[in-house]
Queue: 3 jobs
Job 1
Amino acid sequence: MTRRGYLPIILIVAILALLPFAVTSNVVLNFVVFVLIITLAAQGWNLLGGVGGQSSFGHAAFFGTGAYVSAILQVRFGINAWVATAVAVACGAAVGWIIGFLSFRAGLRGSYFALVTLAFAEVLRILANAAGFTGGAAGMLMKLDVGFWNMQFTSRAAFLWLALGFVAVGLIVCQMITNSRFGAQLVAVRENEEAARALGVDVLSVKLKAITVSAALTAVAGCLYLQYFLYIDANIAYGLWISVEALLAPMVGGRGLVLGPIIGAFTLHGLGEASKLLAGRVAGIDLAVYGAVLILVVAFAPGGVLGLLRKLRFRPQPVTKTAEETA
Amino acid sequence: MYSLPIVAEAMLNGLLTGAVYALIALGLTLVYGVLHIINFAHGAFLTCAMFAVWLAHSILGLDPYLAILPLTLIFFAIGYAVQRFVIGPASHGDDGNILLITLGLSIIIENALLAGFHSDTRSLSTDYSFNVFEVGPLLISQARLFGFIGAVIVTGLLWLLLARTDTGKAIRAVAKEKLGARLVGINVSHVFAVTFGIGCATLAIAACLLMPTFYVNPRVGGAFVLVAFTIVVLGGMGSITGALIGGLFIGVVESLCGLFLGESLGQIGIFLIFILVLLFRPTGLFGARA
């Protein structure tokens, strides 16, 4: 395993870890915690959609499964929060494997894969909304019981470090995958599935591995959301909003790059907060900005923020640039 | 358990709803068949059209059925412009990009409507909203019957347009072979935009037919868009007859699921059909081509 790519990860994590010493405002810390939770969900999406090229529109299925399993274990069975989180992440990964097995084996790709994942998330949303043991439409409220063993903290800083810890693990896992043989196979599948198969890559098993790890990461985000807000319902846990958030952040930050999700999540939510400040309290204005940013990124900066930065650093020679444009 | 008239009424209501579903799916399937893209913003455009009907009624006092003509023209123009000046240039011809751009459009439209109209649910009150016909033991809502008839007429007109006119011929040519069509002198990006415009125009008609009995809020399109996707996949992507039959079928399924499983589970049958069709017969039940 090479050591490439770990320095920026260490730097970013260190800066965020020191943040609570510099800033004490709860508004800022709340913002950072929320963005870190989104980052985790987005890291999951990025592994499958960015590195592997299988764009999912239904990562809510994994986020929601993580949140609901953890909530049910804690509320109904009184199981310790850390154990519940571990089981919930395993369940999220299992849901990922099942959805992946069904849809990849049926040969679904591109738009079809996007639609089928969306439909799976919707089925889970309707079931969670109707079933009794999930609390139905009323949702599930966790008991407020602060303490390390309950994964509940009074200080925002402590929760920030917890979320950051998970994000750091996610970053390292993604970097290890990117540097590994499996990562190379995943990129090969993204670029040309037939060619990858011809070279001896077991396409189905590579995709299944990717969606399982992807789902596990996103399920962690669901568990953290639950521990932070102590409440979920079907429209939060399995809602389209989290599928879209998980997809937007890597697109904006830099699709397929390890740092893409974290950069994208902070950029997007920073822009969202800025637009709220500018426009006042108009409902939906920050989301409208996200939609506009998505279109602009697809149209003008397919590499996202990181792609733009790279372009600025290594200005391509004029000759190669025109060659690219005519191609 | 359930008496026959109740089941029959549920099926009939399902057929009436299904026709409007079919009309909504028609635009989606046409755009897919020609541009080979999935228009994720279809539901958002429908919400827009429903708000336009509501505005026309509450500000100008325009009856929903009289609003059909002007709104159809306006939405054709909007659809044409969006495809020609936003989706086309921004996508660089990549299908995956189009999916993301239409997703971006739907987020913008939905939240702009939320900012403008807030999340309140609004409905129209016309003198005929609650009129019914009695057929034997069954009661048929007059407005919904009009919706059914309108949807069938529009489907027929669209089929005539595609089969009998030069524009239709150009659209079919572009759908089959983009490069060949360009070689014989068809302006492909114009045809793309016209097709997208027609897709939006059918939504304006659907909105006019829906509004006498339905409500509108900024999120209402989301409920329709997945149903429309299901119909399109079920009927075979790009097939107009498939969309009509698929729409009627889905309407009945939703109505019966709602009757037997309860209101909150009513839509689950639709999504299960959607997943099963995608997994086992992605070309659809009536579609020959992939």
Job 2
Amino acid sequence: MSERTNILARIREGLSVPAPVPGTHELHGNEHATAPAPIVPGMVMKWLPPVGATFGDQVALFAKNSFELKTDFQIFDSLGELQGALKTLAQVEGWQRIGTHRGTLNDAICPALGLPMMLTDESYATPDLEKCDAGISECESLIAQTGSVLVTTRSSGGRALSVLPPHHVVLVRREQLLPDLPSGFAALKQKYTGNFPSFMSLITGPSRTGDIERILVLGAHGPKKLTIFCV
Amino acid sequence: MNLNVLQFKSDSERLTHNLDHRERIQSALKKYYVARDDKKARFQDWQAARQAAAETKWEAVNHLDKYLVEFADKIEARGAKVHWASTAEQAREIILGIVKEKNARRIIKSKVMTGEEIHLNAALEAAGYDVVESDLGEYIVQLRHEAPYHFVFPAMHLSRGEISDLFEKELGSAKTDSPEELTMIARRVMRDQYLAADIGISGANFAVAETGMISITENEGNARLTCALPKVHIALMGIEKVLPKFEDLALFLPMLGTAGAGQAVTCYNSMYAGPRQPGETDGPEEMHIVLLDNKRTHLLADIEQRDALHCIRCGACLNVCPIYKNVGGHTYGTTYQGPIGSVITPHLRGIQEWKHLSSASTLCGACTEACPVKINLHHHLLHNRRNAIAQKPVWWEQTLFHLSSILFNHPALWRLAAWGGRIGQLFHPLIQGTILDPARAWTKTRDLPPVADQTFKEYWRSRQK
Amino acid sequence: MKITLFVPCFVDMCYPNVGVSIVEILERLGHEIEVPEEIACCGQPAFNSGYWEEAKKVAIPVLQRLKNAEVIVIASGSCGAMLKVFYPELFAKTEYELDAIALAEKTYEFSDFLVTKLGNPDLGARFPAKVTFHDGCHGLRELGKKKEPRELLSQVRDLELLEMGEAETCCGFGGTFSAKFPMISTAMGEVKCASAIETGADFIISNDSSCLMHIQGLLNRQGEPIKTLHIAEVLNSRR
């Protein structure tokens, strides 16, 4: 505890003199610095990129963002169509084994693929998951503003399922599309306050790097492909 | 002159002559400018967002005691262990202690600049542990036994050819000029490392006081794997990283992505609220947070420059800095390069040893303009200059400025100076560029402007008659 | 209007035509000009080098001499920033604080003065040439003036403005920086010159002679034909 006490004491000593309010480049006349008015969550929405008023606008924006991010985003009218598309994908890519977790959508779709499944709902061996050709997960929500998928340990089969296999497939219902980041965070807070999952992540496109000559390469360490099938 | 100055001067001299280096940095950054401008333009109000980000950080930093305690208590309630380190040495000892206690052998790291700051790898290696950097850029510079060239783009200075040669030598891979193939070589190496690692060490981009979480921003997925697979997760972070509220992330994640990399948000933005919780089937069994002061409270006590603690390490100030673009990241000799590094390094490591970085600026202000949290960077460089001189003036400079004040305040002397200049320039060609030339620093590459036959004031006096 | 003209030290000594042009333009518009003999420099070199006490020795006489001026026009964005932005900081919490703030409020950089205070009058200028404009950092970022000089140039007959890619990038002068770190300064200047030359312009125009001194010094040495001119010289041209 002693370093905690020491550090906090130094902080309090430093803070005994107030600092100028930010953004005003003035350094005089600030002896009585007052806190800026708190930022109301709704204000943030007015500054971030616009998302459109209707659900249709937001779906279109999500699709546009996905295209730019090289995410494969498809929206289907029925579970049957989605299942057909996933089956085709599994055949085209020659999946031998998939990783997934229990969930209403997953349960309705994954077993019908007829592939060996590794479930992450019970404790599992990491090398087994690493050998899966795809990780199929559900999610908390989609964020139209940024083309992101919001996953959590609880909704999406743990920490590793969405990052370890080379292809991450997200199954999602259209009601889960949210307009923007503030609503994504608000929804998490509403659902989990007092009991957050230990891991929550905004996934925005397949894994990428620009570390070599700032040239984009997909699949640096995480999935090379991200597919979002929405129904 | 101290060694840091000599090293800075000789490295900058060498690199400004290296046109390939200049070209590589400019062309890498051009891609960034295009992407950044595109993403900034999508904001409804980028300036209002900057102001809000600045105010949120002001609130956090100016009530740091409160928010830091809130963060620590809340994340401990979720099962993490919080350690407090006043110095780099203490932080190294804490981490070594955990590693020893766990009987760990292999350690995987995601990018953590505070780790560079405390020279963590060297300490772990000296104690006999294998440490691997998993971020591609960091891995490349680790293989080269180099410091990161840029705290966001660590290997920006290297060509694909140099990286291919490096991988051939260190990993035995075949030569290739494809960035994709090079990335896949590193991916394959790293997969084995992940599966074998006992401990994952990460940094933190933000810590949320309200909910007791850390947030990590990345693109590659290496930090996600670092925080998912090993049994123990250690996060090392500066005490200034705290944000008050969970939803503040909704503003800061896009600000960081846009300013830092020209992305609306980066590929992965992950929040970690403790180790594996009951009912969860993966994730580390233990999570340790190491909170590092290492002179940050020294900066906090300086009200003029306290806002330098608002920094979210996006690197935007480096990317626009004409000095950085010409001298490159290694020339600074610091953990944090570019304008923000020049501002904070004197606080962290001593003003007399590092004041030259504040002088090596034209105070052009491009950094301040680019900063997403509105840190008054270039004015702080000016403040560092003043503080360094107030502590220890350079006698000949002080004499020169004193004498020039007399010259400026006496019109007769000023008139005389014009005559002196005219006579002097008659003889100047004889010594120009030689060691006798008092203006040699200028005249080596530039012509001096001639003193006019009639100065403006002479013109004005002649008109009054 | 009675205008007090502050011609900075190096403009006085090396670029008198800038001052002459300003006088002629403002007089043609019917204003009365005064030029204080007693002041030569704003004190920026000492200030920027960290010698704030020495800077005050230069700045206090400036404050005192300009105290009763109606309006001050200064022939440099950089020296303008010194008076408008940095004097209030230099004199914060001293007996001169209020004078410094008052001076800042009535001081204008020349091109800003023409646009903001005089409403961008037609000066009847004619300058048949292709030009590119260099934004001096202090004018651009400390004073926030980007459109003002361009509005002035848009009124000049037969002038074609070609914007360069690096218009807002620092030229590398930076006062004493140019002598303390000559190679970095030169490298930055080379980037600037290359960007200006790329436009195909015949002239680099700026509202800051200090940048132009550096740029012209480099151009001369490189034997490039492109020339530098202060915006006042262009606005006073009728050729």
Job 3
Amino acid sequence: MSASTPAAQPTHQAAGTSSLTSDELDTSTGRSARTPLGTEPKQRKNMVLTVVMIACVAYFLLPLYWLVVASTKSNADLFSTFGLWFADFNLIENLKTVFTFQNGVFGRWALNSLIYSVTSAVGASLLATAAGYAFAKYQFPGGKALFSIILGAIMIPTTALAIPTYLLFARAQLTDTYWAIILPSLVSPFGVYLMRVYAADAVDYSLIEAARVDGVGEIRIFFQVAFRLLMPGAVTVLLFSLVATWNNYFLPLIMLNTPEKFPLPVGLAQWQSTASAGSGSQALFSTIITGSLVSILPLIIAFLFLQRFWQSGLSSGGVKA
Amino acid sequence: MATVTTTATTSGSRSAKSTPRKPLTVAKKRQYRAAYVLVLPFFVIFLAMIIVPLGYAGYLSFFRKQLVGGVSFAGFDNYARAVQDPAFLAGVGRMGLFLLVQVPVMLVLSLFFALALDSGMTRLAKFVRLGIFVPYAVPSVVATLMWGYLYGPDFGPFAQLANLVGLPPPPFLSPHVVLFSIANVVNWEFVGYNMIIIYAALRSIPSELYEAARVDGASEPRIAWSIKIPAVRPALILTIIFSVIGTFQLFNEPNLLRILAPNAINSSYTPNLYAYTLAFVNQDANYAAAIAFVLGIVIMALSYIVQLWNQRKESQS
């Protein structure tokens, strides 16, 4: 492990840049384009393997396909028609219901999700980037000890922390506020670890020295010289914090009481229990299904468009972890 | 994390070389100050959101609240109660079983997909990679809702298909099967994520490591087994540890499937669900804190065992 670390340095950078170019290239030539050395002979494609893989992809896409089909159906058709094929097209009606049911609270949930996740992700990413850079590039008294404490915290189960955090917040009268979700989501020990690894390679000491010689202050070096180089890593942390907060259920479930402050997952779960509990409220299923579809679209789109960031960023974390 | 400390020491010695040790100069002091300024914002929130709640949970766990007499010091009573509590132990045992069944399946699939993509022998590689990864972007609440409907006897397609050929609906939500149904949801959510971590590690193996083997006529599975898998072991260890942590925190999936299968999933089905019930239904924060603490210790111990096992393997090879 210790031997592989310095060796991995150049290859990781090559892998990072090659994934930039591969996005513009055709998928079928993926391998040769992505190979850092480019000397590899063209691999023969294996039909059996391809068929197996496509079958597996079908499994992973099946629920999403079902969700798309189901969201075009009326509640009655959900029960009376075959689940994996379309019936009368009712998507527009369903969308209208989603956004008007309970005085349009769904739109409010979507906005809340956006506020919670964007604020937390930007904050977590900035904090982790600054700390990770400092741990990577400065040797300061107590630095190593601090870093080991933060590393240890990666293993602390966050849901085990949620209950005591709730009790503390209740004392400080912070429960049922936006802060109750944002503050705990700002801490990403794994983000600090990832940024420390990333900064070690991405920012060269000679650059820092050159800036020092020019009389640039240390903090300005971070913001004006290093930050640009740290961007791919920072975007990775941002994206993963975004997912974690957008998808978070446990924390908002215990922290929030007012439906107007719920993020999408808590809201949808509440609709689901209402729908399942009462016999007369079954008309909700098509609404929940369509709402679920709406709630997953933003992240799927973000992941598709920001592929090169999370893929190159993860590779730096994966190599050395 | 032992693997991490090695990186810390290598980069530490690297920077020590470039800045030889001298008495504290003005520049050095300025650098220290900058380092603290950069670390401070994270550290303040880290203290407030992790260390303080952790300490508070520890503190709470030593007290007990009674209807008569109020709050009193309880010593280790809550812990003694936890390790004898059948509901808690059943939950831990269930998660142990889950860990043994779900995590190996998930990681073997992730590894297989990553190797298949890395071998370059799959057509439509980019589509396959994204198709497997995309569930990671789906909130676990939505994933569980979807699978819950798919499993369901009312309008689930599996029940519909069974009905068509005259069979009873498959018992996805029955007491003995529901754990595996949950395992399937968790697999669906995280196989792609783990695949990407392993795949990223595979991409960074210098290809000359296996080029020679390929020239010598070694088969692709042979190269995968003897060269690629050992090379990505650090990434595999990372995925194992994350899976251990994730498994023992299981909450969202069982809590939502409970709505559909109240007879199969009770309020102490997972340790986390139990802690939640204790704190918010029974209003017993002290005992809930002790449960959370014991759970944390179980998780840390298991992560530690994984690392020890890894180190022993590493020293053997």
